[in-house]
Amino acid sequence: MERMYFKHEEHLINNVLFTYIIGVALFGWLAVMIFLNGGIRECIFPLSGLCAVITKLGEKKLGRATKYVYACIPPVIGAITNAVCSTPDSESYVSITHYYFVATLLLIPYYNARLLRMNALVTILSNAILLIIFPTGFLKLHPLIGWIYNGFFYIILYVACNFISKHSIFLFRVIEQEARSVKSFENQLEVMRESQDKFHALRHDMKHHLQGIYAMAQKEENQDVLNYLEQMQNSLVNPKEYVKTGNQKMDAIINYSLSKAERFNIKVEQHLKVSRKIALEAYELNIILGNLLENAIEAANDSCEKYIHLHILENKGMLIIDIKNSYSGKLVTYGERLLSTKQGANHGYGLANVRKIVESHHGTLHISYDEKEFHVEVTLYL
Predict the structure, then answer these.
(1) Residue 27: CB atoms within 10 Å
(2) What is 242-382's CATH topology?
(3) The whole model's pTM is what?
Protein backbone atom coordinates (compact mmCIF):
# COMPACT_ATOMS: atom_id res chain seq x y z
CA MET A 1 0.00 0.00 0.00
CA GLU A 2 2.81 2.40 0.90
CA ARG A 3 4.66 1.68 -2.32
CA MET A 4 1.50 2.18 -4.38
CA TYR A 5 1.01 5.55 -2.68
CA PHE A 6 4.55 6.76 -3.40
CA LYS A 7 4.36 5.47 -6.98
CA HIS A 8 1.20 7.52 -7.51
CA GLU A 9 2.77 10.60 -5.89
CA GLU A 10 5.92 10.29 -8.00
CA HIS A 11 3.84 10.08 -11.18
CA LEU A 12 1.94 13.20 -10.09
CA ILE A 13 5.14 15.19 -9.45
CA ASN A 14 6.56 14.00 -12.78
CA ASN A 15 3.50 15.55 -14.42
CA VAL A 16 4.00 18.79 -12.49
CA LEU A 17 7.64 19.02 -13.65
CA PHE A 18 6.65 18.20 -17.22
CA THR A 19 4.00 20.94 -17.21
CA TYR A 20 6.45 23.42 -15.65
CA ILE A 21 9.18 22.76 -18.24
CA ILE A 22 6.75 22.89 -21.16
CA GLY A 23 5.06 26.05 -19.85
CA VAL A 24 8.30 27.95 -19.22
CA ALA A 25 9.80 26.83 -22.55
CA LEU A 26 6.77 28.00 -24.54
CA PHE A 27 5.86 31.23 -22.76
CA GLY A 28 9.49 32.19 -22.07
CA TRP A 29 10.39 31.80 -25.73
CA LEU A 30 7.32 33.77 -26.88
CA ALA A 31 8.08 36.59 -24.41
CA VAL A 32 11.68 36.85 -25.63
CA MET A 33 10.68 36.78 -29.29
CA ILE A 34 7.90 39.37 -28.91
CA PHE A 35 9.22 41.78 -26.27
CA LEU A 36 13.03 41.39 -26.22
CA ASN A 37 13.97 41.39 -29.90
CA GLY A 38 14.65 37.65 -29.96
CA GLY A 39 16.33 35.97 -32.93
CA ILE A 40 17.13 32.51 -34.24
CA ARG A 41 19.45 31.77 -31.30
CA GLU A 42 16.58 32.09 -28.86
CA CYS A 43 15.02 29.00 -30.44
CA ILE A 44 17.46 26.89 -28.42
CA PHE A 45 15.51 27.38 -25.19
CA PRO A 46 12.31 25.63 -26.45
CA LEU A 47 14.49 22.51 -26.74
CA SER A 48 13.80 22.06 -23.01
CA GLY A 49 10.14 21.59 -23.89
CA LEU A 50 11.06 19.10 -26.62
CA CYS A 51 13.26 17.17 -24.16
CA ALA A 52 10.34 17.10 -21.69
CA VAL A 53 8.01 15.70 -24.39
CA ILE A 54 10.53 12.99 -25.34
CA THR A 55 10.94 12.12 -21.63
CA LYS A 56 7.16 11.97 -21.23
CA LEU A 57 6.85 9.55 -24.14
CA GLY A 58 9.60 7.36 -22.70
CA GLU A 59 8.38 7.31 -19.07
CA LYS A 60 7.48 3.62 -19.15
CA LYS A 61 10.94 2.62 -20.33
CA LEU A 62 12.73 5.06 -18.05
CA GLY A 63 10.70 3.94 -14.99
CA ARG A 64 12.07 5.40 -11.77
CA ALA A 65 14.84 7.20 -13.70
CA THR A 66 12.23 9.57 -15.20
CA LYS A 67 12.48 12.06 -12.35
CA TYR A 68 16.26 12.27 -12.79
CA VAL A 69 15.86 13.14 -16.47
CA TYR A 70 13.28 15.83 -15.70
CA ALA A 71 15.57 17.24 -12.99
CA CYS A 72 18.48 17.57 -15.49
CA ILE A 73 16.56 19.32 -18.29
CA PRO A 74 16.25 22.86 -16.75
CA PRO A 75 19.91 23.29 -15.67
CA VAL A 76 21.46 21.77 -18.83
CA ILE A 77 19.27 23.51 -21.42
CA GLY A 78 19.31 26.66 -19.29
CA ALA A 79 23.13 26.74 -19.24
CA ILE A 80 23.28 26.22 -23.01
CA THR A 81 20.76 29.04 -23.44
CA ASN A 82 22.92 31.34 -21.29
CA ALA A 83 26.00 30.52 -23.35
CA VAL A 84 24.44 30.99 -26.77
CA CYS A 85 21.47 33.35 -26.54
CA SER A 86 22.63 36.39 -24.55
CA THR A 87 24.08 38.72 -27.19
CA PRO A 88 24.85 42.46 -27.28
CA ASP A 89 21.69 43.14 -29.31
CA SER A 90 19.32 41.07 -27.13
CA GLU A 91 18.56 40.87 -23.40
CA SER A 92 17.40 37.30 -24.02
CA TYR A 93 16.30 35.15 -21.06
CA VAL A 94 16.99 37.56 -18.22
CA SER A 95 15.18 35.42 -15.61
CA ILE A 96 16.85 32.11 -16.47
CA THR A 97 18.35 31.71 -12.97
CA HIS A 98 14.87 31.83 -11.47
CA TYR A 99 14.05 28.90 -13.76
CA TYR A 100 16.76 26.84 -11.98
CA PHE A 101 15.60 27.85 -8.51
CA VAL A 102 11.95 26.96 -9.09
CA ALA A 103 12.92 23.66 -10.75
CA THR A 104 14.92 22.70 -7.62
CA LEU A 105 12.04 23.70 -5.34
CA LEU A 106 9.68 21.46 -7.33
CA LEU A 107 11.91 18.47 -6.51
CA ILE A 108 11.20 18.67 -2.76
CA PRO A 109 7.95 16.59 -2.89
CA TYR A 110 9.96 13.62 -4.20
CA TYR A 111 11.58 13.48 -0.72
CA ASN A 112 14.71 12.12 -2.34
CA ALA A 113 18.04 13.53 -1.10
CA ARG A 114 19.97 11.80 -3.88
CA LEU A 115 17.82 13.48 -6.55
CA LEU A 116 18.28 16.92 -4.98
CA ARG A 117 22.03 16.36 -4.72
CA MET A 118 22.28 15.34 -8.37
CA ASN A 119 20.18 18.32 -9.51
CA ALA A 120 22.36 20.75 -7.56
CA LEU A 121 25.55 19.17 -8.93
CA VAL A 122 24.32 19.29 -12.54
CA THR A 123 23.10 22.88 -12.13
CA ILE A 124 26.38 24.18 -10.67
CA LEU A 125 28.72 22.20 -12.96
CA SER A 126 26.87 22.83 -16.23
CA ASN A 127 26.73 26.59 -15.61
CA ALA A 128 30.31 26.80 -14.27
CA ILE A 129 31.78 24.84 -17.21
CA LEU A 130 29.90 26.78 -19.88
CA LEU A 131 30.68 30.07 -18.11
CA ILE A 132 34.39 29.26 -18.53
CA ILE A 133 34.01 28.13 -22.16
CA PHE A 134 31.48 30.77 -23.30
CA PRO A 135 31.89 33.73 -20.92
CA THR A 136 30.35 36.37 -23.23
CA GLY A 137 26.77 35.15 -23.00
CA PHE A 138 26.91 34.59 -19.25
CA LEU A 139 28.55 37.93 -18.48
CA LYS A 140 26.03 39.74 -20.68
CA LEU A 141 23.28 38.32 -18.47
CA HIS A 142 25.06 38.98 -15.13
CA PRO A 143 28.52 40.26 -14.16
CA LEU A 144 30.88 37.73 -12.60
CA ILE A 145 30.05 38.89 -9.08
CA GLY A 146 26.37 38.35 -9.95
CA TRP A 147 27.02 34.74 -10.92
CA ILE A 148 29.04 34.18 -7.74
CA TYR A 149 26.15 35.61 -5.74
CA ASN A 150 23.64 33.43 -7.61
CA GLY A 151 25.82 30.38 -6.99
CA PHE A 152 26.05 31.16 -3.28
CA PHE A 153 22.29 31.74 -3.09
CA TYR A 154 21.61 28.50 -4.98
CA ILE A 155 23.75 26.50 -2.54
CA ILE A 156 21.74 27.96 0.36
CA LEU A 157 18.54 27.04 -1.51
CA TYR A 158 19.78 23.47 -2.04
CA VAL A 159 20.69 23.07 1.65
CA ALA A 160 17.26 24.37 2.66
CA CYS A 161 15.47 22.05 0.21
CA ASN A 162 17.51 19.09 1.40
CA PHE A 163 16.71 19.90 5.04
CA ILE A 164 12.99 20.26 4.30
CA SER A 165 12.97 16.98 2.38
CA LYS A 166 14.77 14.99 5.10
CA HIS A 167 12.80 16.56 7.93
CA SER A 168 9.53 15.83 6.11
CA ILE A 169 10.52 12.18 5.75
CA PHE A 170 11.28 12.06 9.48
CA LEU A 171 7.88 13.56 10.32
CA PHE A 172 6.12 11.16 7.96
CA ARG A 173 7.82 8.26 9.72
CA VAL A 174 6.79 9.52 13.15
CA ILE A 175 3.19 9.87 11.96
CA GLU A 176 3.36 6.41 10.39
CA GLN A 177 4.65 4.89 13.63
CA GLU A 178 1.90 6.57 15.64
CA ALA A 179 -0.77 5.46 13.17
CA ARG A 180 0.50 1.88 13.27
CA SER A 181 0.53 1.96 17.06
CA VAL A 182 -3.06 3.22 17.16
CA LYS A 183 -4.18 0.56 14.67
CA SER A 184 -2.41 -2.14 16.69
CA PHE A 185 -4.16 -1.18 19.92
CA GLU A 186 -7.51 -0.72 18.16
CA ASN A 187 -7.14 -4.23 16.77
CA GLN A 188 -6.20 -5.58 20.21
CA LEU A 189 -9.21 -3.89 21.82
CA GLU A 190 -11.46 -5.47 19.19
CA VAL A 191 -9.88 -8.87 19.89
CA MET A 192 -10.40 -8.44 23.63
CA ARG A 193 -14.00 -7.29 23.13
CA GLU A 194 -14.82 -10.32 20.99
CA SER A 195 -13.16 -12.67 23.50
CA GLN A 196 -15.14 -11.06 26.30
CA ASP A 197 -18.39 -11.44 24.33
CA LYS A 198 -17.66 -15.12 23.82
CA PHE A 199 -16.99 -15.57 27.53
CA HIS A 200 -20.22 -13.76 28.50
CA ALA A 201 -22.20 -15.90 26.05
CA LEU A 202 -20.72 -19.07 27.56
CA ARG A 203 -21.40 -17.90 31.11
CA HIS A 204 -24.99 -17.01 30.19
CA ASP A 205 -25.63 -20.58 29.01
CA MET A 206 -23.49 -22.24 31.69
CA LYS A 207 -26.50 -23.65 33.58
CA HIS A 208 -27.72 -25.43 30.44
CA HIS A 209 -24.23 -26.70 29.65
CA LEU A 210 -23.79 -28.13 33.16
CA GLN A 211 -27.18 -29.85 32.96
CA GLY A 212 -26.19 -31.46 29.67
CA ILE A 213 -22.80 -32.59 30.99
CA TYR A 214 -24.41 -33.92 34.21
CA ALA A 215 -26.90 -35.95 32.19
CA MET A 216 -24.18 -37.48 30.03
CA ALA A 217 -22.00 -38.20 33.07
CA GLN A 218 -24.89 -40.05 34.76
CA LYS A 219 -25.12 -42.29 31.70
CA GLU A 220 -21.33 -42.74 31.78
CA GLU A 221 -21.07 -41.33 28.27
CA ASN A 222 -17.48 -40.27 28.88
CA GLN A 223 -16.54 -39.65 25.25
CA ASP A 224 -19.60 -37.47 24.74
CA VAL A 225 -18.66 -35.45 27.84
CA LEU A 226 -15.14 -34.92 26.46
CA ASN A 227 -16.51 -33.89 23.06
CA TYR A 228 -18.93 -31.47 24.70
CA LEU A 229 -16.17 -29.91 26.82
CA GLU A 230 -13.99 -29.57 23.72
CA GLN A 231 -16.81 -27.72 21.94
CA MET A 232 -17.17 -25.39 24.92
CA GLN A 233 -13.44 -24.71 24.86
CA ASN A 234 -13.48 -24.04 21.11
CA SER A 235 -16.33 -21.59 21.53
CA LEU A 236 -13.98 -19.41 23.59
CA VAL A 237 -11.25 -19.39 20.93
CA ASN A 238 -10.97 -16.08 19.08
CA PRO A 239 -9.55 -16.57 15.55
CA LYS A 240 -8.20 -12.99 15.59
CA GLU A 241 -6.16 -13.64 18.73
CA TYR A 242 -3.07 -15.22 17.20
CA VAL A 243 -0.92 -14.74 20.30
CA LYS A 244 -1.66 -14.25 23.97
CA THR A 245 1.54 -13.69 25.90
CA GLY A 246 -0.08 -11.56 28.60
CA ASN A 247 2.03 -8.57 27.52
CA GLN A 248 -0.59 -6.24 26.05
CA LYS A 249 1.88 -4.03 24.18
CA MET A 250 3.46 -6.98 22.38
CA ASP A 251 0.18 -8.80 21.81
CA ALA A 252 -1.32 -5.70 20.17
CA ILE A 253 1.55 -5.28 17.70
CA ILE A 254 1.88 -8.98 16.84
CA ASN A 255 -1.86 -9.68 16.53
CA TYR A 256 -2.25 -6.69 14.20
CA SER A 257 0.75 -7.76 12.07
CA LEU A 258 -0.29 -11.41 11.91
CA SER A 259 -3.83 -10.49 10.86
CA LYS A 260 -2.19 -8.57 8.00
CA ALA A 261 -0.03 -11.60 7.14
CA GLU A 262 -3.10 -13.85 7.07
CA ARG A 263 -4.79 -11.54 4.54
CA PHE A 264 -1.78 -12.06 2.25
CA ASN A 265 -1.89 -15.86 2.78
CA ILE A 266 1.53 -15.84 4.45
CA LYS A 267 2.31 -18.85 6.64
CA VAL A 268 3.47 -17.73 10.08
CA GLU A 269 5.24 -19.91 12.63
CA GLN A 270 5.61 -18.21 15.98
CA HIS A 271 7.13 -19.05 19.35
CA LEU A 272 6.93 -16.43 22.10
CA LYS A 273 8.11 -16.53 25.68
CA VAL A 274 7.93 -13.15 27.41
CA SER A 275 6.76 -11.77 30.73
CA ARG A 276 3.71 -9.57 31.26
CA LYS A 277 5.90 -6.51 31.78
CA ILE A 278 8.91 -5.63 29.64
CA ALA A 279 11.16 -2.69 30.47
CA LEU A 280 10.65 -1.22 27.02
CA GLU A 281 8.38 1.69 26.08
CA ALA A 282 5.39 0.90 23.86
CA TYR A 283 6.69 3.42 21.31
CA GLU A 284 10.11 1.73 21.12
CA LEU A 285 8.59 -1.75 20.94
CA ASN A 286 6.33 -0.58 18.14
CA ILE A 287 9.26 0.81 16.14
CA ILE A 288 11.24 -2.42 16.48
CA LEU A 289 8.53 -5.07 16.12
CA GLY A 290 6.28 -2.98 13.88
CA ASN A 291 9.01 -2.19 11.34
CA LEU A 292 10.57 -5.66 11.34
CA LEU A 293 7.23 -7.43 10.94
CA GLU A 294 6.05 -4.96 8.30
CA ASN A 295 9.26 -5.50 6.32
CA ALA A 296 8.94 -9.27 6.72
CA ILE A 297 5.31 -9.26 5.54
CA GLU A 298 6.01 -7.08 2.49
CA ALA A 299 9.07 -9.13 1.54
CA ALA A 300 7.32 -12.49 2.06
CA ASN A 301 4.31 -11.32 0.07
CA ASP A 302 6.61 -10.63 -2.91
CA SER A 303 8.19 -14.07 -2.70
CA CYS A 304 7.03 -17.47 -3.94
CA GLU A 305 7.12 -19.43 -0.65
CA LYS A 306 5.46 -16.78 1.56
CA TYR A 307 6.47 -17.65 5.11
CA ILE A 308 7.57 -15.93 8.32
CA HIS A 309 9.18 -17.53 11.38
CA LEU A 310 8.85 -15.36 14.47
CA HIS A 311 10.65 -16.20 17.72
CA ILE A 312 10.75 -13.89 20.73
CA LEU A 313 12.42 -14.84 24.00
CA GLU A 314 12.90 -12.86 27.19
CA ASN A 315 15.56 -14.27 29.47
CA LYS A 316 17.73 -12.83 32.26
CA GLY A 317 17.28 -9.18 31.32
CA MET A 318 17.61 -9.82 27.60
CA LEU A 319 14.96 -9.66 24.90
CA ILE A 320 15.78 -11.60 21.75
CA ILE A 321 13.67 -11.05 18.62
CA ASP A 322 14.42 -13.45 15.78
CA ILE A 323 12.56 -13.13 12.47
CA LYS A 324 13.12 -15.18 9.33
CA ASN A 325 11.10 -14.68 6.17
CA SER A 326 11.10 -15.60 2.53
CA TYR A 327 11.85 -12.84 0.03
CA SER A 328 12.33 -12.33 -3.70
CA GLY A 329 16.13 -12.25 -3.49
CA LYS A 330 16.34 -8.54 -4.38
CA LEU A 331 17.86 -6.09 -1.90
CA VAL A 332 18.33 -2.32 -1.82
CA THR A 333 21.88 -1.41 -0.81
CA TYR A 334 23.93 1.76 -0.51
CA GLY A 335 27.58 0.88 -0.96
CA GLU A 336 28.11 -2.09 1.33
CA ARG A 337 25.27 -1.10 3.61
CA LEU A 338 21.94 -2.90 3.40
CA LEU A 339 18.95 -0.53 3.32
CA SER A 340 15.90 -2.68 2.68
CA THR A 341 14.29 -5.68 1.01
CA LYS A 342 11.72 -3.25 -0.47
CA GLN A 343 12.13 -2.11 -4.05
CA GLY A 344 10.51 1.32 -3.93
CA ALA A 345 10.61 4.91 -2.82
CA ASN A 346 11.25 5.87 0.74
CA HIS A 347 12.99 2.64 1.60
CA GLY A 348 15.58 2.03 4.30
CA TYR A 349 14.13 4.23 7.04
CA GLY A 350 12.47 1.35 8.92
CA LEU A 351 15.72 -0.53 9.52
CA ALA A 352 17.51 2.73 10.35
CA ASN A 353 14.90 3.53 13.02
CA VAL A 354 15.17 0.01 14.45
CA ARG A 355 18.96 0.35 14.59
CA LYS A 356 18.70 3.62 16.56
CA ILE A 357 16.45 2.08 19.23
CA VAL A 358 18.62 -1.03 19.48
CA GLU A 359 21.79 1.04 19.91
CA SER A 360 20.12 3.20 22.57
CA HIS A 361 19.66 0.01 24.63
CA HIS A 362 23.26 -1.09 23.91
CA GLY A 363 21.86 -4.02 21.95
CA THR A 364 22.80 -5.66 18.67
CA LEU A 365 21.09 -5.91 15.28
CA HIS A 366 22.32 -8.77 13.14
CA ILE A 367 21.15 -9.22 9.55
CA SER A 368 21.92 -12.17 7.29
CA TYR A 369 20.40 -13.50 4.09
CA ASP A 370 20.79 -15.90 1.23
CA GLU A 371 19.02 -16.08 -2.13
CA LYS A 372 15.66 -17.06 -0.59
CA GLU A 373 15.59 -16.21 3.11
CA PHE A 374 16.10 -12.96 5.04
CA HIS A 375 17.04 -13.19 8.73
CA VAL A 376 17.03 -10.45 11.38
CA GLU A 377 18.06 -11.00 14.99
CA VAL A 378 17.74 -8.25 17.60
CA THR A 379 19.17 -8.53 21.11
CA LEU A 380 18.17 -5.90 23.66
CA TYR A 381 19.51 -5.50 27.19
CA LEU A 382 16.64 -4.35 29.40
Answers:
(1) 10
(2) Heat Shock Protein 90 (3.30.565)
(3) 0.61
